Amino acid sequence: xxxxxxxxxxxxxxxxxxxxxxxxxxxxxxxxxVQIFAPNQADDAAVVPVSIKIPSTVAPSAKxxxxxxxxxxxxxxxxxxxxxxxxxxADIGERTIATRIRVDAFSRVRAVxxxxxxxxxxxxxxxxxxxxxxxPASKDQEQALAQMGKAHLTVLRDDSNGKDWREARVMIKHxxxxxxxxxxxxxxxxxxxxxxxxxxxxxxxxxWSMEGGISxxxxxxxRFTFATDSPADLEFTATDTSGAKFRATxxxxxxx
Length: 256
Hints:
single chain; mainly beta; Immunoglobulin-like; 9-stranded mixed β-sheet; 6-stranded antiparallel β-sheet
């Protein structure tokens, strides 16, 4: 779901966002089921690291995760739908999903986890930062487009966390233009173009799929942990709003 709206500095946008996303369903702070970590103050509002942790007791029932930046023009940064490849497997401790986001104004950043019983669990963190959605890309438009499409999938193992523990990282070279960035040469706004879908699989088993928006930073980078005893390679496929496709694979059993 994608929606935009404007609020004054004195308004609390969360009630409207909650109603648009979840209708009349209850969404409660629940640090026992989900936690979110981000800097108090962003060094660069266009590249803000954020990490979500799901306890091992909750991971088997994780259904979806919605990452929200209240005061961004498009508040939904990403929605992850979890498959059996993420939910099942040995107990490896908490599961982590981490990425980098844009923060356009001082805002509360929220992670809303839905479990298979239909309950919505929330964690949030206030982040000081501004201008992340309109900040110019780190490369000029021509350079960014020339490098676009390079995709990598790396998998790490650490047997001290258990023989089935893995950490994977999805990386895509892509400017993720927001539509709010000005071309320094022409003075025109660069049209929006961003990675809007990613799916990660091991063989025929889906770990997660993601719907993304403009609030994910350029060169999307998503790190996550999971458990597996299968030797099959990991693979991700992705698309952007212009229909371009990206793909990469990674060995599930790299040297530890």
